[in-house]
What does this fold into?
Amino acid sequence: MRYFIEFAYNGKNYHGWQYQPDAISVQETLNKALSLLLKQEIELVGAGRTDTGVHARQMYAHFDFDQILDSDRWVQKLNSFLPKDIAVYRFIPLHDEAHARFDATGRTYEYHIHLFKDPFENEGSWFHFHPLNVEAMNQASQLLFDYTDFECFSKVHTDVRTFNCTITEAYWQQNGTKLVFTISADRFLRNMVRAIVGTLIKIGLGKTTLDEFRQIIESKNRSRAGFSVPAHGLYLTRVVYPYIQERHSL
It folds into this structure.
């Protein structure tokens, strides 16, 4: 039987989701805990990658196991085996062809910025002390809907077959001295969100115009886009599947 697990993690102490031969990852930590708990080798397949230091408020992975698992009972057991920065919410039994990575139809990320020095925000938000023109950043965000090829925001030397993504929402919200950028798409390229945010920051600083933003996208050249903002402000907040009903608390 194939099971999905829904979980979240604080990425501060991990070198991303995916297994690393010489560094601790979320995947390795969950694999070890599940294998110990279920008394057989478990290999999780995740919904996607997150880079070193990136967080996930909602993430899914699947694994195969030949016994029936009661979700509430095994969630409690697994959480007792896991460190405090990883939390599992539920086990979901599904058909054998269900796939955590390939079946996801949408993903949402948030990037968090604080504009005034705050010692309690530093681990989960990026401190940017220069004033930003949020209206201009939102205008630029709307231009993303005009394009599907985002090679200019992709990590170079990546092995993807296509740089095409369909963005369905992209906007900034400000609450006092806190800024949050939300972006949703059917898929994302490696480093894409952090590069988009870094480029939008240059617009907010008045260093890049809206016309130049279009030119950057159309150039398909990573060196023309902005810097990648630090990982610790980035959160994967939602992964959508056509056959999984979301929890009411989300």
